[in-house]
Structures are given as C-alpha cells and as structure tokens.
Design a protein that fits this description.
By secondary structure, the chain is mainly alpha-helical. It has 3 helices and 2 strands. Helix content is 41%, strand content 7%.
Length: 116
C-alpha cells in the first residue's frame, strides 16, 4: 500500500475542503417557482397568501416590473419566490400545498428580477 507524506495529506485535505466549500457556495442559490401542474385557482391562492404575508406584490401589478407577461403562472412564481426568500428559504416556505418547486437557474427576465 502506498504511503502519503504528512504534508501531502494535509495539502489534499485543505484543497478538498476548499473545493467542497466552493461547490456549496456555487450551488446554494435556489428559487421557488410554481409547478407546471398547478391550477389557476391554486396559483391565485398562492398569490393571495404571499401578498397577505408581507411580500411586496407591487411588481406583479399593472405597470410593475413583473406584470408582463400578464399570467397567473408568472405572477405566482414571482411572489412565491419572494415569500420563499424572505421566510427562511426552507422546503416548507416553497411548498405552497405542493404547488411550488425549486429552480437552480435564475428565472429573472428583462426588468423582472427574482430575489436570490
């Protein structure tokens, strides 16, 4: 069996630790968006819930940065993510009765910027 010198072993452990921490940071951004199978009624309920719990819903109102496209899926995704980001970024904060899911890529578009 090959032996590794102490300095080499220490270097390996240090580099491994750096890489593990770097990977964690790179993959730590997640967004909460509506599932494709959520009904319009569920999406509207999610909007109502999030907006009544302190989420700033002005961006999805007419003239807001996330109003266009004017559809429930985009509006719900924006406020669901805002709720998720401001309520601990937990699985439960993105559940929305199983109508929320996680995205690993930023869903922002144009002037509509999703919090991360």
């Amino acid at each position: 069996m090959a032996k590794i010198s102490s300095p080499l072993a220490l270097l390996f452990i240090m580099l491994s630790s750096i890489m593990i921490n770097h990977i964690h940071v790179a993959s730590s951004k997640t967004w909460c968006i509506a599932t494709l199978i959520a009904t319009n009624a569920q999406l509207q309920a999610n909007i109502n819930f999030a907006c009544s719990r302190g989420v700033d819903c002005r961006p999805i109102r007419p003239g807001g940065s996330c109003f266009i496209p004017n559809n429930l899926a985009n509006h719900a995704s924006f406020v669901m993510n805002s709720y998720y980001q401001t309520h601990g970024r937990t699985n439960q904060a993105c559940s929305f009765k199983n109508t929320g899911t996680f995205a690993a890529t930023d869903p922002s578009f144009g002037k509509c910027v999703y919090a991360s």
